[in-house]
Amino acid sequence: xxxxxxxxxxxxxxxxxxxxxxxxxxxxxxxxxxxxxxxxxxxxxxxxxxxxxxxxxxxxxxxxxxxxxxxxxxxxxxxxxxxxxxxxxxxxxxxxxxxxxxxxxxxxxxxxxxxxxxxxxxxxxxxxxxxxxxxxxxxxxxxxxxxxxxxxxxxxxxxxxxxxxxxxxxxxxxxxxxxxxxxxxxxxxxxxxxxxxxxxxxxxxxxxxxxxxxxxxxxxxxxxxxxxxxxxxxxxxxxxxxxxxxxxxxxxxxxxxxxxxxxxxxxxxxxxxxxxxxxxxxxxx
Length: 285
Description:
By secondary structure, this protein is mainly α.
């Protein structure tokens, strides 16, 4: 089957051919022609036009042609839905749809300038979208810098960050602290914006509806509850100091940790730890 669209593709007009060839018709022929020739040429060679106004396969409201292909051909794949958000955001300059959208846009803007031949660009673009699909299917929760094991975090903490006013940390150490902070147990340091972007739900709506399904807690309170639960687990199962546990659970300082812990449990973490140690001792005796 033949598919035809405008020349000089960048994002959607490469994503759609990738989707066609990978999920609809592996032998499909993709044709690029000047904008004013698409409809005439489509009729002449019996090709299906896509990604231009006035045809079936095109943009609808805030969704792009890639979205329509998925809907039209009843393709159910969570990874493709995840890709669609990235492609939609890149193709419509709505980078709030997915954090990766700006990167995808930058890649194809650069490639389209470097590669004037549309089919050469398509060939390379197929590989780019193969990679994006693998990410969307298997690796979307993986970070470039994975959260290190606790011992490595503590080593960095004690060696470079636990210096207080005695020695001013260099700029790189402050940046490292921020980077580590971002990677501390990504499952419980999500922001409302990140979640709403991933789920493609308006953040105001998500904030309003969240408590109905999560223990009658706001998003922020629920995340803090999870962090305290992790802290309790560390107190009960490790010999880390409370300062170390506060650090490992993503709290910016000891006083903040103490305040949230008491609010969640009704007692100071030091008292909880003392009772936990006593309980272990009584059990072992």
